[in-house]
Specification:
- It is a single chain.
- The chain is of the alpha+beta class and 273 residues long.
- It contains 7 helices and 12 strands.
- A hairpin with a 3-residue loop joins strand 1 and strand 2.
- The protein starts with 6 loop residues before the first helix and ends in a 6-residue tail after the last strand.
- InterPro entries: Bact_HTH_transcr_reg, Chorismate_lyase_/UTRA_dom_sf, Tscrpt_reg_HTH_GntR, UTRA, WH-like_DNA-bd_sf, WH_DNA-bd_sf.
- This is GntR-family regulator.
- GO terms for molecular function: DNA binding; DNA-binding transcription factor activity.
């Protein structure tokens, strides 16, 4: 019986297998359109669709004027998210994976040690930029915060780098009814800047007692792909997080995206005795 897969899928699957087996190594050029057309007796459109599938899966990246090349998909590290995580805008601790091809600048650990948090001097250099703007609450965000559509919010957009590599993008929303006229109006300015949600709200007498997270995946937009160093349409890990105070009132909600092929999420789950 013949292969029932569409030709574009067969091309993409064959290329993925070559990459997984190391026949096409990281940094190697994917066969050209002409070569793929000849090998598979396929049209331009079919070959282009196969390459788009490969890019969306994170296996390849296009370089303008040069061609399409095999991407490095080795995970760089883990974001540990737990109640013990550092209260910072990142809301996580970073753990570098050992043995990865892109392990940062001699920070490696011994073979077989898995991932671990190294000594303080071996942690990646984390930096971020943030921009805050007052906005009207869109319907989805208003529902998450339990406020009316159009209510004034402070929207802060973050871009994080770890050892100068793109790490994640995040957008946070806080009701201005809670923070207007206080020292925590702007998350990245004032005496409580860079403290994280819990620390900042504690400074104005609001005690955050819990948070919820929903983890999903979705394709990268063009702008996200540019910022995260991947291809448009490539699958991203998306985290939706909302913080609640002791009165079960939502006081902040955020959307975070990161490359699922480069960074893992890890959750510490404690059980009662």
């Amino acid at each position: 019986m013949g292969d029932a897969r569409p030709v574009y899928q067969r091309i993409a699957d064959d290329l993925r297998q070559q990459i997984d087996e190391g026949t096409l190594a990281v940094g190697a050029r994917i066969p050209s359109r002409a070569e793929l057309k000849r090998t598979y007796t396929a049209s331009d459109q079919t070959v282009d669709r196969a390459v788009r599938v490969l890019k969306a899966a994170g296996y390849a990246t296009g370089q303008f004027g040069r061609g399409v090349f095999v991407s490095d998909r080795e995970p760089l590290g883990v974001l540990l998210r737990s109640t013990g995580a550092v209260d910072s805008p990142l809301a996580a601790r970073i753990q570098i994976l050992s043995g990865g091809r892109e392990h940062a600048h001699g920070h490696g650990h011994g073979p077989g040690e898995g991932h671990q948090e190294g000594p303080a001097g071996e942690q990646p250099d984390l930096i971020w930029e943030a921009t805050s703007t007052a906005v009207a609450a869109p319907p989805e965000i208003a529902a998450r915060l339990g406020v009316g559509v159009g209510e004034p919010l402070m929207c802060t957009q973050y871009e994080y780098l770890a050892d100068r590599r793109p790490l994640q993008l995040a957008t946070s929303w806080e009701p201005l009814a809670l923070t207007k006229g206080t020292d925590v109006l702007h998350p990245e300015r004032g005496p409580y800047a860079r403290r994280g949600v819990r620390g900042r709200f504690a400074a104005i007498g609001i005690r955050i007692v819990r948070a919820t997270e929903t983890v999903a995946s979705r394709p990268a937009t063009g702008a996200e792909a540019d910022a995260l160093g991947c291809s448009p349409g490539q699958c991203l890990t998306a985290v939706q997080r909302t913080h609640y105070d002791e009165h079960d009132r939502a006081v902040e909600t955020s959307d975070t995206v990161l490359r699922g092929d480069r960074w893992r999420l890890e959750y510490a789950i404690g059980f009662g005795g």
